[in-house]
# Entry
Amino acid sequence: MSNLAAQAQSDCGQQGCDHPDHGQRIRLLSYNIQAGISTGRYRHYITHSWKHVLPHAQRFSNLDRIARLIRDYDVIGLQELDAGSMRSGYVNLTEYLSEKSSLPFWYDQTNRRIGRIASHSMGLLSRFEPTEIVEHRLPGRIPGRGALFIRYGSKQDSLVVLILHMALGKRARLRQFDYISEIVNEYRHVIVMGDLNCPSQSPEMDYLINRTLMSEPFHNMHTFPSWRPQRNIDHILVTPTLTVDSVKVLNYSLSDHLPVEMQITLPDEIRLGS
# Structure
């Protein structure tokens, strides 16, 4: 195990643990994995571009290393996966990571298909079994963006997780955040995570925060590009009912993004895995 993977290990072992004075503590991770493609320089977007359409052996070596990182987390939201196409050797990458990490529950949402070449998706890996999963198609002039809704627990005392991969354009993101805010406002305990393609202090993020009770505990945690992080476009936001114990960006550069980790303590009325 690398030092970086060891750094990510939890003191709670293989289950979400109890805070000594409060509720259950769980570990969250959001990671845009770029379909297992390593990018270490801007020029790699050109010289490695063939890897986005053709299979290559290094992809699964990178995925195995990602699996070693994520196996110590409880709820993981992944962006830029492949649901099984020519470039992935017709392997569903979410399922592959579930098997390699021994995380039993997984789900993927395909947002855009390019014939047999690519099947762009995002996914959930979880130590706990969800009670409900819903796929949402986000509005936008160019289709292919989605939100994956996951609910744990009963309707009244439930934890909701939304995994997002937002549009590149500001106008489209505003429409998409408007859509997301309607979902968020239906629940008390919500986590939003993903590649939002905008920084913390942007009109789009302000719009979401002002329309909901969500907040981002720490700003300007740079995640992109992974080899010289200068932009914070990957985020985890929570409602005030969830206690944030820690947040950090992991120096684990197997993609062009870095992963974001958060540890939270749940309210007493919510218990995952029971």
